[in-house]
Write a structure and sequence with these properties.
169 residues; alpha/beta; Nucleotidyltransferase, domain 5; 5 strands; 20% strand
Length: 169
């Protein structure tokens, strides 16, 4: 597997956590991490623009090759949340298109299972494991959730490479 710089995003309108990691054959290293926290009084288009601008800036500064996000899920009691998250996720998908990057998505359960071995782990458990695994302290659970997506992508790319090699042989 060639080196890949991935932008992993934990979508949210109040707090959008992200991490940029370099994926290598057997290593995942954190390049940068952060959060986008639009001011609460901004309109929805302004908040989305804030997220767009920050993530574009990170991509340009860190030579990102692909983006990974969580597949949307919302509890039936909170349908409005799904609509808001879909808008943020749409901005991230638009960024992938703008920079002609591969766009990957994983369910939250799959990302956590790939990372922790169980899909029903809470965000604090993900954060602790992410810090132990990476040797970095993560500023928030949102950033740690984004890191778990990068790990899931790393596993997926390795499996795909093995499948390809098996077909060639």
């Amino acid at each position: 597997m060639a080196k890949v710089n991935v932008l992993a995003v934990d979508v949210g309108i109040r707090t959008c956590g992200y991490v940029i990691c370099e994926l290598d054959a057997s290593d995942i290293s954190v390049v940068t991490q952060g959060e986008v926290k639009p001011k609460p009084k901004l309109s929805m288009p302004e908040k989305l623009g804030c997220i767009f601008d920050k993530l574009c800036c990170e991509i340009e500064n860190n030579k990102v090759n692909c983006i990974v996000v969580e597949r949307l899920y919302s509890h039936y009691r909170h349908p409005t949340t799904l609509g808001v998250l879909a808008q943020v996720r749409g901005v991230v998908a638009l960024i992938a298109n703008k920079y002609d990057m591969m766009f990957y998505e994983f369910s939250p359960t799959r990302a956590r299972k790939s990372f922790l071995g169980k899909g029903n782990a809470n965000s604090m458990q993900v954060k602790k494991m992410a810090e132990q695994f990476s040797g970095h302290e993560f500023a928030s659970e949102h950033i740690a959730d984004a890191f778990s997506l990068a790990v899931a992508l790393s596993h997926e790319l390795k499996v795909n490479k093995l499948k390809l090699e098996a077909h060639i042989i």
